[in-house]
Amino acid sequence: MIPFLNLKEINSQYGEELKRAVCRVIDSGWYILGEEVAAFEREFAEYCGSKNCIGVSNGLDALKLILKGYGYGPGDEIIVAANTYIATILAISEVGASPILVEPSMETFNIDSQQLEHHITENTRAILVVHLYGRVADMDDIWDIAKRYDLKVIEDAAQAHGAMYKGKRTGNLGNAAGFSFYPGKNLGALGDAGAVTTNDNHLAEKIRALRNYGSFKKYENVYKGFNHRLDEIQAATLRVKLPFLNQENETRRLIAELYQENIKNKMIVLPINPANYEEHVWHVFVIRTKEREKLKYFLDEHGIQTIIHYPIPAHKQTAYAEWEKCCYPISGRIHDEVLSLPISPVQSIEDTWEIISVLNQFG
Questions:
Q1: Alpha carbon distances (Å) from 224 to 26, 68, 75, 141
Q2: Omega of the bond prior to 310 within 30 degrees of 0, cis?
Q3: For position 196, what pLDDT does the model report?
Q4: Per-residue b/e over 115-147, b at no fewer than 16 CB within 10 Å?
């Protein structure tokens, strides 16, 4: 069996270092918002090229804290891609604002910047940009529109750790960015974890309080905040793995290159490479086919595990029943056709060639 993602093997590479990091926290006697969190925040901010990093509980909470930090709520509209994972949209709903869905580009899977202006109203406050599957969105066009209408640009960089756009990394391409360090991400913790990065010092200060019950000083609460803190053990494990992120992303790019150059099957549509090599970190390698169920079964029969990202679009979820009659044909087609192939920093070249061989036999 070729697994979709072998988390045990990914983490075993750093097993002894991870154990030492956990023991260091245990021995410190300090488990919440201590030296490990502060150190990780400094290191990840430097990595992203951002002035501030605030460690938080997960990626959804990171986005929610950004929106809450800007004061968005009922009556405000936030533009977001229709085909994103539902967590991005839930963050908007959680603060009481209205998600405004915009169709993606079939070529990049990211929000179609050419459609943005059609959805801007007097209530629009921000564009929540998702770098889906590890590919950076079209930030120049998005910023041109945002400046024209005085909108904030917020990055959902949960799948794009380390991706670059014109010399700058994700996390430093908008007014603020939310990251997830869920174990399966390019930079994954050993549990739930997340972060906000921003160059806005005032926003950073507010989010530091909001994540901790709205408090700057114990038992003094300035805001109606939350308990969305990053714990010391997760921060310590992320510090172990961060120095290897670029190397692991390079391995992902190598596997993606092998897929791109050697999958030769007319029934399979490959993702289009970005013009800039560093714009994609291949969190997942997503192909399209009109015969998805047959292909998935065929790969299963040959011992190759795949995943669908994502089988049901947000506007068809029961949670958003009010959107049931909405029509997003491009997003719908993407959700009906996409299939994610195995790709990870521990996937062997031999396994990659086996996947390619099986794909080329399908038909």
A1: 31, 10, 20, 36
A2: yes
A3: 99
A4: ebeeebeeebbbbbbbbbbbbbbbbeebbebbe
Confidence band (pLDDT; 50, 70, 90) for 53? very high
Q: What is the rounded CA–CA span in Å between residue 196 and residue 176? A: 7
CA-CA distance, 300 to 314, in Å (whole number)? 27
2-7: long-range pairs with CB below 8 Å, 24+: 2/303, 2/304, 2/305, 2/342, 2/347, 2/351, 2/354, 2/355, 3/305, 3/342, 4/305, 4/306, 4/307, 4/340, 4/342, 5/184, 5/342, 5/344, 6/344, 6/346, 6/347, 7/183, 7/184, 7/188
- Secondary structure class of 125 (helix, strand, coil): strand
Two structure tokens written together for 318: 């029961």
- Which helix (H) or strand (E) segment holds residue 340: the answer is strand 338-341
Dist. CA 175–CA 180, nearest whole Å = 17
Calpha distance 136→248 (Å, rounded): 18
Q: How far apart are CA 175 and CA 55, in angstroms?
A: 17
Single-letter residue type at 172: N
Structure tokens at 249: 């992303």
Please list, in sequence order, all residues whose beta carbon lies within 8 angstroms of the beta carbon of residue 134, skipping any fewer than 6 positions away.
159, 160, 163, 186, 252, 280, 281, 282, 283, 284
- pTM, entire model: 0.97
Q: What is d(CA 163, CA 160) in angstroms, rounded to the nearest whole number?
A: 5
Strand spans (E) along 147-218: 152-156, 164-165, 168-169, 176-180, 194-198, 215-217
Per-residue pLDDT of 215-256, as tens digits, reads 999 999 999 999 999 999 999 999 999 999 999 999 999 999
Residue in 173, 188, 176, 110 with CA at minimum distance from that of residue 140: 173
Helix (H) or strand (E) holding 128: strand 124-130
CA distance 345 to 323: 38
Q: Name the amino acid, one letter, at 72.
A: Y
CA–CA gap between residue 324 and residue 24 (Å, rounded): 50
What pLDDT digit, counting tens, does each position of 129-183 carry?
999 999 999 999 999 999 999 999 999 999 999 999 999 999 999 999 999 999 9
